[in-house]
Write a structure and sequence with these properties.
The protein is of the alpha/beta class. It is built from twelve helices and seven strands. It is 39% helix and 18% strand. It has a seven-stranded mixed β-sheet, sandwiched between helices. Strand 4, helix 7 and strand 5 form a beta-alpha-beta unit.
Length: 281
């Protein structure tokens, strides 16, 4: 028998989840998106069952909230880190009309799905939408390749956020912008509590880090105007309400909302930029 390190075991679980299991096919998600969603208050206020269209819209809206923070213009060249199946990359290209969107992901299975699902957009815009395999910690582009980087609910899988911060800074141009959304703990106490509640945290698939450690890492990498904004009120209750309508209503996944209410986890939109006078790096 061969011993498996914690990292190897985690990598195998991630490869399975985003490979043969294809998370996008689960009832928790819809529209080929894989995120908790950003939920409008009016969807939950009615008390009516959430429709699949509303669930899909919540996942699209999370992309919209993140992309809006980049102040995207027609000359921008953007990178999505952890693009998965690429539907978010295609949405940003279609709705925000930058010059280019490049999607980076480590999973060959996800990238193969991205090529299939977005085939029409890829044919129509062969140089404006591009998918590439690679690591968030070692991005396959030269310095200063992008004017904007964004990531939606992927950073919990990155092997190290300090290394990601350095790489993001490296591939951004002076004046470039970063916007990232995922879940963190408000302080250092959250992860230990969450491991007892949530299987993916316990297995190491989802790594929940203190948000302050990430913002400090961004500042140490050279970013300025680093901000972390809680958007948990727009995420956790809506996702839990949707989950209650699925076959997962009695699963451990209902504990995300409990963790939020206990103050052990929150959902953040983190933004930062490279100074315009950063010069050659």
């Amino acid at each position: 028998m061969t011993d498996t390190s914690p990292t190897e075991g985690r990598d195998a679980l991630l490869a399975s989840m985003y490979g043969v299991e294809d998370l996008s096919s689960f009832s928790l998600f819809s529209g080929n998106f894989i995120n908790f969603g950003y939920w409008a208050d009016d969807v939950l206020a009615t008390g009516e069952p959430i429709t699949v269209a509303q669930r899909t819209r919540s996942q699209e809206d999370l992309y919209r909230v993140v992309a809006q923070r980049l102040a995207i213009g027609p000359d921008d060249v953007l990178l999505e880190v952890g693009c998965g199946i690429g539907v978010g990359s295609a949405l940003v290209l279609s709705e925000f009309d930058p010059a280019e969107v490049h999607g980076l992901d480590l999973s060959p299975d996800q990238l193969a799905r991205a090529e299939r699902l977005n085939s029409e957009t890829l044919r129509a815009h062969p140089k404006r939408l591009v998918f590439q395999r690679g690591s968030a910690l070692d991005m396959p582009w030269p310095d200063g390749s992008f004017s904007g980087i964004y990531s939606v609910e992927a950073a919990q899988h990155f092997g190290g956020l300090t290394a990601f911060a350095r790489e993001a800074y490296r591939v951004l141009r002076p004046g470039g912008r970063l916007a990232l959304a995922t879940f963190f703990s408000p302080d250092g106490q959250g992860p230990a509590h969450l491991a007892a509640l949530i299987a993916t945290v316990r297995s190491g698939v989802d790594v929940v880090r203190p948000v302050g450690s990430f913002t400090t890492g961004l500042a140490d990498a050279g970013f300025v105007d680093v901000r972390a904004e809680s958007i948990g009120d727009h995420v956790w209750r809506g996702f839990d309400t949707w989950m209650d309508q699925t076959e997962h209503r009695n699963s451990w996944g209902r504990n995300w909302l409990r963790g939020y209410r206990e103050g052990w986890i929150d959902y953040y939109l983190v933004t930062a930029r490279v100074a315009a006078d950063a010069g050659t790096r």
